[in-house]
Amino acid sequence: MTYLLRRLEFFVVTLWAALTLNFILPRLLPGGPEVALRTRFHGRVNPAAIKSLEVALGVNNNDSPFQQYLSYLGNLLHGDFGVSIGFFPKHVVDVIMLALPWTVGLVGMATVIAFVLGTLIGIVSAWRRGGVLDSVLPSIFVVTSAFPYFWIGLICIYVFSITLGWFPQAFGSSSEVSSEWSWTYISDVLVHSILPAFTIVLTSIGGWVLTMRNNMITTLAEDYVKMARAKGLSPARIMFHYAARNAILPNLVGFAMSLGFVISGALLVEIVFNYPGLGTFLRQAVNNEDFPLMQSLFLLITLAVLLAVTAADFLTAWLDPRTRERA
Amino acid sequence: MRRRRALTIALFAVLALTVAACGTTNPTAQLKEGGTITIDNESGTLWTCGFNPFNANVNSFAFGPVYEPLVYNNLLNGKTTPMLASSYKWSSDSKTLTFTTRSGVKWTDGQPFTAADVVYTFKLMKTNSALDLQSVWTVLSDVTQQGSDQVVMTFTTPAVPYFYYIAGQVAIVPEHIWSQIKDPVGENMPKPIGTGPFTVGDCTPQNIPYLRNPNYWQAGLPHIAKVNYPAFLDNDPANAYLASGQAQWGGQFIPNIDTYYVAKDKDHHHYWFPPIQNVNLFLNLTLKPLDDKLVRQALAYGIDRPKVSKIGEYGYQPAGSQTGIVIPTFNDWYDSSQAAKYDYKFNPAKAQSLLQQAGFTKGSDGIFKDSAGKRLSFTVISISGYTDWTASLQVVRDNLKEIGVEIKEQDLSHDDYFNKLFLGQFQMGYGSLSNSPGPNPYYELRNTLYSQTSAAIGQTASGDYGRWTDPATDRLIEQFGATTSTAEQHNIMKQIQGIMLEQVPVIPVTESVAWYQYSTKGFGGWPTRDDPYAAPAPWNIPDWEQVLLRVHAT
Predict the structure, then answer these.
(1) Quick check: B7 pLDDT over 50?
(2) Count of domains in chain A?
(3) Which H or E run contains B377?
(4) B231 CB within 8 Å of a chain A CB
(5) Percentage of chain B modeled with pLDDT above 70
(6) A280, B204: Cβ pair inside 8 Å?
(7) Do A287 and B135 touch (CB under 8 A)?
(8) Would an 8 Å CB–CB cutoff place A31 in contact with chain B?
(9) Is residue B351 part of a domain?
């Protein structure tokens, strides 16, 4: 129990540090909202116009930095993230909601698939070390993982969309299908997600395969595995309950981290497939000096990683009694 | 037999006539109706599905097909087409402009359009200055309704060129809708009501569908039923989409366009890049030695413009002219005899002799120095990510090195770059004006040279970033603004070109173009070099309305 409490304490302190950094960092960037506004008006500054836009955006008030910091924390508690500059007059929350479902859907699913598939392949190839599967799959996936995302993506588009015409080459859904929940819409979205998801899985699976396989090999040499064999337990039970359960522990935190980073989107995949995800919003926000959007996205990413890591800690505590004892 | 033969001939004649009737196009025949056009224009962002025409972020998706101007001004040749105003008239002192509004026009919610809507729109921009994107109230003094269908605008100064901003760049909105809106600045306007040929359908972050307005005031227009405007986040997917024929109308920069785009469908894929604006080397004239005319002339002789165009711009952006006139678009304003007299071709010998004349001597490192030993070395700011301009600037750097002038490039973010130009905190800058150009060379040259648009160093200048302050130039620009006589305007423009050539307050290097690709597969009526009825890129606002009115299925 103290272990869990300590993890929670760590979570709160890290969160506060992240929030504070998130407040300071954008303010250290050159320029600022007023520079962005001046450019928007092509320098034909009408002071009244700038003033009224600043009020609408809620920037550039005369509060001291500390007051701004307090109101920033207060606004966060109320879930008020302000108005986006680049997508004015939309609220930041609305802007993020445009892209969040797509990113979570595509990158999230692809990450889970890559982890599950990679772990299974790692388990099996370690179990049958030197077998056909072990000599083929891990080496292939290690090679594909070395390829950059966008390169695989471009090749996929060229082969499967442009040459063969099997899959659409861009977008998250077709413009001719209305976005209501219907089977046609869902299948349309699925068809559009196949290539980008395949790209992500192909380039990220190798890491999982390799680490899982190596962990398994170490675990399989443990005495308790020999003991299980001696007891005459079924191979499946030994493989999953004795060896894999222990071997997966180091990978869980890694998986949690990558789930957290799902929120940041897969920028390059989104660009190559013109997929409506959060990664491109982040790039856009930085280009536009859209501070409210930038801050909220950074916050979201930090929060997601923190939550995922904390969840992984709890999961480890449950899977591995030793962590509980040590605490 | 004879009779029979006669009958056969008669039959043939009838047949031939019928065939002829089918073969020749009857000018009054209806063009084919229907069809869907897809626009391909990388915006780098998803759609917010807001259509507030006064919001600079989304104005380009509403103004044109949805909200219309009073008079359409062709950006390429200045030809005007009456839209919501059926006619207009200047007073003799060029300080009063009277519009007659068109009758029989309806908003897409069925309400009639009236002169009161026009007055309301302008008053709205006066009370909410953040809506005044064209700063028209800097010259307007009042807008009133006269009779049932006249709108009278009075100006503080003679303001003939402002016609383009007032009649051509302001979207007219319905009073009955906008008077209900509490905060017009923060209004999103998801379902816009305009007078235009299209309405907005079921918009998503990935696509804006525009649907034909069946009650549009120009009977029989538009021909096409639907326009899709998908959101492209990056150039590469947008170019691939265009090349594969899934989009018909592009506004894209495509490297190697002949191989990448045209060759994919030689019979149907076409492009045309009309130049619309100069890409300049801006010089900060408040700094020594850039305040010296001889140095500026030397720089102008020290840049190989055709080479910059060829290497930096794949030849798509043509070489610029030191007259400041964008050619060939504005050829009829161009003073070729004056230009020939100066002959600003790449001429290192002449450039170096000018520098020597200005009192500089060449140092051992090949770079000129002044008498105090200070090298002719400058920092040029440019926008990072504009890769073709970066490449161009490298050619400029090599050119200038040949004449003994050193320049160092500094890439900045878009906003940061313009901010430095506005404030005058730069030595040299490479790029175009922040303001969009107009339907004749005056607009760009006014914003480049008029000291009234400038400001002291550290203050925001809306134009004249180099701080060119010359009473003669100012007088010419003001005279141009006060006359409606074309001959007089041409005469003034000649004198302005003389100043550009002699004084070199800024150095035009290349000309930026309207990127425009179109597919004739299934569609016709596109603007072409021979029929330049509108600036052709989908991002030319509100010109794209004219294109969407004319394009038809074939």
Answers:
(1) no
(2) 2
(3) strand B377-383
(4) yes
(5) 95
(6) no
(7) no
(8) yes
(9) yes
Decide if A39 and B240 are in contact by the 8 Å CB cutoff: no
- pLDDT, tens digit, 9 for 90 and up, residues B194-207: 999 999 999 988 89
- Chain position carrying tokens 């800097």: B138
pLDDT at B14: 44
pLDDT over 70 (residue B3): no
Please indicate if any CB of chain B lies within 8 Å of the CB of A44: yes
Model pTM score: 0.84
Structural domain count of chain B = 2
Q: Does residue B230 sit at the A interface (CB-CB below 8 Å)? A: yes
Contact B444, B433 (CB under 8 A): yes
Interface size between A and B, measured as CB pairs under 8 A: 150
Q: Are residues B184 and B102 in the same domain?
A: yes
| B-chain residues near A280 (CB < 8 A) | 44-46, 233-234
Please calculate the CA angle B298-B303-B309 and round it to the nearest 5 degrees.
160
CA separation for the pair B487, A307 (Å, rounded): 73
Is B363 an 8 Å CB contact of chain A?
no
Q: Which residues of B touch A36 (CB under 8 A)?
A: 415
Residue A146 within a domain: yes
- Give the span between the Cα atoms of B245 and B227, in whole angstroms: 15
Q: Do B289 and B153 sit in the same domain of this protein?
A: no
Residue B102 has pLDDT above 50, yes or no: yes
B520 touches chain A (CB under 8 A): no
Same domain, B38 and B131: yes
Please report which confidence band the pLDDT of residue B311 belongs to, taking 50, 70 and 90 as the band edges: very high
With CB atoms and an 8 Å threshold, state whether B419 touches A38: yes
Range B527-535 contact pairs with CB under 8 angstroms and sequence separation of 24 or more: B527/B272, B528/B270, B528/B272, B529/B272, B529/B274, B532/B74, B532/B76, B532/B77, B532/B274, B533/B74, B534/B72, B534/B74, B534/B75, B534/B76, B535/B74, B535/B75, B535/B76, B535/B274, B535/B276
Task: Let me know whether B356 and B466 are in one domain.
Answer: yes
For residues B38 and B132, state if they share a domain: yes
Same domain, B40 and B59: yes
- Tell whether the model's pLDDT for residue A60 goes beyond 70: no
Residues B463 and B544 in one domain: no
Looking at chain B from residue 124 to 153, which residues have their Cβ under 8 Å from any Cβ of chain A? 128-130, 132-133, 135, 138
B318 — pLDDT class (breaks 50, 70, 90):
very high
Looking at residue B19, its pLDDT comes to: 42
pLDDT value for B70: 96
What are the structure tokens assigned to A265, written together?
A: 């989107």
Does a structural domain hold residue B221? no
CA distance B241 to B247: 6
Residues B301 and B422 in one domain: yes
- State whether A141 and A56 are in the same domain: no
Structure ipTM over 0.95, yes or no? no
Cβ proximity of B209 and B203 under 8 Å: yes
Per-residue pLDDT, B506 = 96
Residue B93, both tokens:
């002192």
pLDDT of residue B84: 95
A234 touches chain B (CB under 8 A): no
Q: Name the minimum distance, in Å, from the CA of A141 to any CA of chain B.
A: 27
| A 77-96 → B contacts, CB under 8 A | 83, 86-90, 95
8 Å CB contact between B118 and B70:
yes
Q: How confident is the model at residue A38 (pLDDT cuts 50, 70, 90)?
A: low
B523 within some domain:
yes
- Which of B52, B205, B237 minimises the CB distance to A272? B237
CA-CA distance, B266 to B245, in Å (whole number)?
A: 12
List the domain range (segments joined by +) for residue A174.
92-326
| Residues 56-75 in A contacting B (C-alpha not used; CB under 8 Å) | 56
CA A91/CA A109 separation, integer angstroms: 28
Could you tell me if residue B350 is inside a domain?
yes
Domain identity same for A72 and A102: no
Domain limits at B535?
12-195+514-553
Claim to verify: residue A124 and residue A210 sit in the same structural domain: yes
Q: What is the mean pLDDT of chain A?
A: 83
- Identify the residue among B415, B443, B459, B462 best suited for mutation to test binding to A, counting A beta carbons within 10 A and taking the highest: B415
Asked if B463 reaches chain A (Cβ–Cβ under 8 Å), the answer is yes
CATH number for the domain that contains residue B449: 3.10.105.10
pLDDT for the residue A50:
64
pLDDT at A44: 54
